[in-house]
Amino acid sequence: MTSEYVTFGLAPAMRAGGVLADGAYQTQREFLDFVVDGRPLLARLADLDAVSPLAADIGPSALAEQVRRLLLETEPAPEGSRFVLYGCPECEGPECGAVTAVIERDGPDVVWRDFVRQTGGIPDIERDGYHALGPYRFHGEQYRTALKGLLTADGALAPGIPDGPRALLIGPRAAVLAKLAAALRRIGIGAEITLDAAGAHADELRKYGAVVFGRTVGQDERDAVRDAFAAARCDAVCVTALAPIVPLLVAQVVQALDRTPHDRRRLLGLTAVAGGAEAVVEVAATCRVALAAHRLDRLSRPRTRELFDAVLDPGTHHIPLDLRALRGRSYLVARTNEAVRVTPVER
Predict the structure, then answer these.
(1) 253 in the same domain as 200
(2) Sign of CA dihedral 103, 104, 110, 114
(3) Domain count of the chain?
(4) pLDDT over 90 percentage in the chain
(5) Average pLDDT over residues 317-343
(6) In this structure, how many other beta carbons lie within 10 angstroms of the beta carbon of residue 287?
(7) Residue of 28, 10, 25, 21 whose CA lies nearest to 255
(8) Cα–Cα distance between 261 and 11 in angstroms, integer?
(9) The domain containing residue 91 runs over which residues?
(10) Would you say residue 144 lies in a domain?
């Protein structure tokens, strides 16, 4: 088998969670993506909503087993040497579809080839194959070093997999913060509510990736909390709740938890043109982008409306908006499979 060598690595990645416009919950997943020749492999699959088997929430023993499978140290699956590289973020069943590939040794090297979208049984490579992917030939030593770095000497899981995300909510345990905490937990983000975090132990503060200030929290209280996190050497992102709209607040938290390096992001920016006539969306690579509008009506009831959902090519896109969905104080949320961006609409 002939193919040029490419580099292999691993990088933290996120499947963005959220409360969607139709009320459905989308689970937040933290995982390690495969980096092939300097680019995340998942980014080459523009419209695929999936996670790798190296996910933070499947348990240490199961995760270590997945690493050993990729190292070809365990028995192959019954159908041969085909391995799951990406699966459904919401379940473990094959019915939703998975991306699989043949992984095999070729002398000292490791080769990934014949990538397909598989829902069960023996796949049809011609019909379901990703013909633009692979084959990829990795130097065996580099490949094994990257994966073995996730295991200890006795084969157990070593530090390196992203921890589950957590957010700290500051303010009275009122209805909005309580609903926000419940929604975050529903999508897989740990959430706690407290009136004052300024006196918390540094080790506890370091567990959080985002801090949300309720709208009633004063500036002095916010400054004290920021100082406490800074003293704990914690890089948690502090955000102020934009409006008492739970899906919008969840989007703010998900955006704050995003630690993806800028050069590996597909969704780079979201702004709303003054007056709300159009949204400006900047993407770095082909991906599916959905836009939703959030606002409060005259009776302070939250309203959500889907405005746009399509695959966008790299570049800056000007998307016309329906002004009827943006009456009063309103907000836009842009979503891809792995990222969320929030912006207010200035009228």
Answers:
(1) yes
(2) negative
(3) 3
(4) 49
(5) 91
(6) 22
(7) 28
(8) 10
(9) 8-148
(10) yes
Residues 23 and 130 reside in one and the same domain: yes
Q: Does 154 map to a domain?
A: no
For the stretch 141-185, pLDDT in tens is 999 999 988 876 555 555 555 567 899 999 886 788 999 999 999
Q: What is the mean pLDDT of the chain?
A: 87
Residue 338 belongs to some domain of the structure: yes
Which amino acid would we find at residue 206? R
Reported confidence tier of residue 252, pLDDT bands at 50, 70, 90: very high
pTM of the model: 0.85
The domain boundary, picked from 91, 123, 148, lies at 148
The two tokens of residue 317 are: 């896109």
Whether residues 217 and 288 share a domain: the answer is no
Question: Beta 166-170 vs 190-194: how paired, if at all?
Answer: parallel
Residues 240 and 327 in one domain: no
Torsion angle in degrees (nearest 10) through CA of 122, 126, 128, 131: 120
- Cβ contact 232:202 at 8 Å: yes
* C-alpha distances in Å from residue 295, one per residue of 159, 243, 255, 299: 42, 8, 19, 11
Closest CA to 36 of 70, 5, 1, 2: 5
Two tokens at 273?
A: 């043109």
Q: Tell whether 247 and 180 lie within a shared domain.
A: yes
How far apart, in whole angstroms, are the C-alpha atoms of residue 223 and residue 232? 14
Note whether 30 and 57 are within 8 A (CB): yes
- Pick the last residue of a domain from 259, 282, 304: 259
